[in-house]
Amino acid sequence: MYNINCDVAIVGGGPAGLAAAVSAKQEGANKVLIIERDNALGGILQQCIHPGFGLTRFNEELTGPEYYGRFVDKANEVGVDYLLNSMVLQVNGEDKTIICANSEYGLTLVNAKSIILAMGCRERTRANIVIPGTRPAGLYTAGSAQRLINRQNIMVGKKVVILGSGDIGMIMARRMSLEGAKVVMVVELMDYLAGLTRNRVQCLDDFGIPLKLAHTITRIEGNTRVTGVYVAPVDENKKPILSQEEFVECDTVLFSVGLIPENELSSKAGVLINKVTNGPSVDQYMQTSISGVFACGNVVHVNDLVDNVSAESEQAGKYAARYAMGNFPKTTGDVCCQTGKNVRYLCPHKLALSNEYDKVTLYFRVLSPKQNVTLTVRCGDNIIAKKKELRVSPGEMNSIKVDTSLITDDSITVDVIEGD
């Protein structure tokens, strides 16, 4: 078995892995190794040729390849090592080893001092949401259609219905329209948008594409190829109202019905998985339940902006490097981060108490859309952080900063309250 030794080993070479690697090198780690299953770095951003990336981080609008390209350039500059064409088979968090199959070296053992999990996420498919009907050609996840069109120059259809108003689905509605296809409609089960408002404006409204909220596809028709779908509104319990079902002719259906963090490796390694996000439970250092094993990006929780992924991943890289070098903060206990009113989940899931007091950013998503709200962080009976927002939506990430020196209890709670 081929052996490699390093200080920090990173599983995944997408935007999260790249940001973590650069951060780890800048923090002082000697050898930082990215293990990537593809033949190039960049991850999902390789196929995201549309603009809209980097507005927060770089104050300019970049395409996906332009965004990750800046991190690749920086990684080369600081001396990050790569192991491409390498499928990770096992992560052992206790002894910090990784077993992978590499196209050149065969079975390879990576010995590290700390590990960062940055495997990203995958799309839910038709099977995950159980839509009845036949199994014809013309059914794609939005991401697979994006890859076929943008990277392989293969047009997937001419008359399209998109299920789900997630960001990838809306972006593909625009992309299909630009390629000459007719996007008949975007159908969304919930009564609110699942993605960013700016994507609705730029990808649907600007192209005159109808969005049917509180609707779903009830059946798929077609033998060799999709011929159409039945669409129906849903009641307050999300059950289709079949008496109002209508047939919509199309030859292609794209599914944009959510993303799932890629955590098979995390689970097998024994990392504690959060039941809401389906990602590792982490603290503010992005350290998981296993000492010296960190996680970042969409493998932890699905982000709406890659700029947020980069920020969280830099935190993981910084502290993974410090762990590898033996100067990780000494912790004295944990503070549980609890969801309060209209909060679906929080990340980080806990805060590690140490002598290094700092301001920690809590990221979260709400359960339902609201306007004119106040975000609060409570510690016991005291409000230790407060922030106003004009509106909140489940499709967009929210955040609030907390000064850890103000924490006096073993838990804090985040609430989103209408009004003051």
Structure, described:
With 420 residues, the chain is an alpha/beta fold. It has eight helices and 29 strands. A five-stranded parallel sheet has the order 6-3-2-10-21, with helices on one face. The protein has a five-stranded parallel sheet with strand order 12-19-13-14-15. A hairpin with an 8-residue loop joins strand 4 and strand 5. The mean pLDDT is 95.
SS elements, strand count: 29
Question: Helicity range of the residues?
Answer: 10-25%
Number of helices: 8
Strand content: 35-45%
Q: Which strand order spans the largest sheet, edge to edge or round the barrel?
A: 6-3-2-10-21
What's the overall average pLDDT, rounded?
95
For the record, give the distance between the C-alpha atoms at the N and C termini, rounded to a whole number: 62 Å
**What is the CA-atom radius of gyration, in angstroms?**
22 Å
Give the biggest beta sheet: 5 strands, parallel
Globular, elongated, flat, extended or rod-shaped: what is the shape?
globular
Give the class from helix and strand content and strand pairing: alpha/beta
Poorly predicted runs are none
What's the arrangement of secondary structure elements?
Blueprint lengths: L1 E4 L2 E4 L3 H13 L4 E4 L15 E3 L8 E2 H15 L2 E3 L2 E7 L4 E6 L3 E6 L2 E4 L3 E3 L2 H4 L9 E3 H11 L6 E5 L3 H12 L3 E6 L9 H8 L6 E2 L2 E8 L3 E8 L12 E4 L2 E4 L3 E3 L2 H5 L24 E3 L10 H19 L6 E9 L3 E5 L2 E5 L4 E8 L3 E10 L2 E11 L5 E6 L7 E8 L2
Parallel strand pairs: 1-9, 2-3, 2-10, 3-6, 10-21, 12-19, 13-14, 13-19, 14-15, 22-29
Antiparallel strand pairs: 4-5, 7-8, 8-9, 11-20, 16-17, 17-18, 22-24, 23-25, 25-28, 26-27, 26-29
Helix pairs in contact: 1-2, 1-8, 4-5, 5-6
